[in-house]
Design brief:
Length: 440
Amino acid sequence: MSRKTFQPGLCLVVLALTLMALTAPLGAEDITTLMNPESGRAWFVSGTAGNNGNDGTKEAPLKNIDRAVKNAAAGDTILVAEGAYTGTFGVGYIKIDKPLKLYGSFAPDFSARDINTHTTLFQPNNKSAAKAREPLITLQKNIDGTVLDGFVLDMGMRNSYSTTEGKPEGVETGMLLLPPAKNSGDAATVEKPILFVPSATQGGNLTVRNNVFINGANFGIQAGLRSGKTTITDNLFVANRMAAIEVFGTSGQEPGEVEIAYNTILFTWSRLDDFQDMGYGVRIMTKLKYDIHHNIIGGNIKGGVDHRRYNKDEWIKVDNNTFFVNKTADFSYSPESNVLLDLSVGEMVDVPLASVSGNKGDIPQGLKVNEAYLDGYLNARYSEETDLDRDSPANQWRSVLGLNLVGTIETSVSMFGNRYPWKEALGMFGAVDGVGARKP
């Protein structure tokens, strides 16, 4: 019999005793300016007061976000009131094939914006997984000028979770189930990213800010960029699988750029429940320039930032980030083939990047997280028991014939990809001065 156990935590009690985060209305742009854009028209959406037969004005809003996307022309603005959205007919996804500016978290009368009190929640249910198995939002064809601002994007109701296995006390679900496994009566979990940008897009500038990416079963953001600059700022990434952010370049010419700044990234889970592969906060890929700064990156199963795809060091800046309790490393690095380094935040200064300074290894005092989820994560473990009887008649015969011996393996996991309560995640905005997702 053999057993292997996984224990991801150091002491993180301080994190569970933190203060309530401050919040404030979204203020990247003035509401009047959003309603009267310099180019294109504004489309209004209200899940409670709208009708898809309306003309999409403030007085007669549409009902569904995807209907506004279909009606809008390239360059238009879509303003979405508070409420829970699932897509027309509950289909559970949105595809956007032209550059649009989408802003969420408006009051019902569009007089104010506040992601805490007027939350625009895109949250498909599990039944939608039987209708379509798509990313929550896909940006296709031309993305140049697209903005996504002020949405809670939650996959937690679309996934399938065990009712009993891997369920720490106080956590609202059991462990995430990956196909073909599923809870009785459920459709299987959809293993697709929350926000997906296929590599076939035409490229251009993309802005993603003031959003919550939560409970994703396959990446928070996964994007292939042909050109331009992608800006990912002031977002929360909580309880996603594989990686919170994986962005890669697709052009053989001048590389594009990505800025990943002022985000809070927590509890990124591994590919499988054995905790052996994936589970990164930010994954640096190829053919792209990266500027990664002022992020909070903690509690990721594998590592905080992964730089093992041999992108050019001189294209990468990693500055003023806060790392803590990342299981394998704060910074995973491969300077050359077959050399794999797992570095702490203190060792990062010796990596020959374009810039690497001001990074810290502190537990943020003001970051409020769900205590039951935190406790479950700190005690998360995977175990495996093998029962192999070499002297059994069957195995003696197989041995004589040169065949593999047979036995049984029993595995158990205490926690894996469990659903995180999205309402509690909102308290992380503006929790820590100078780093992480700022008050929208």
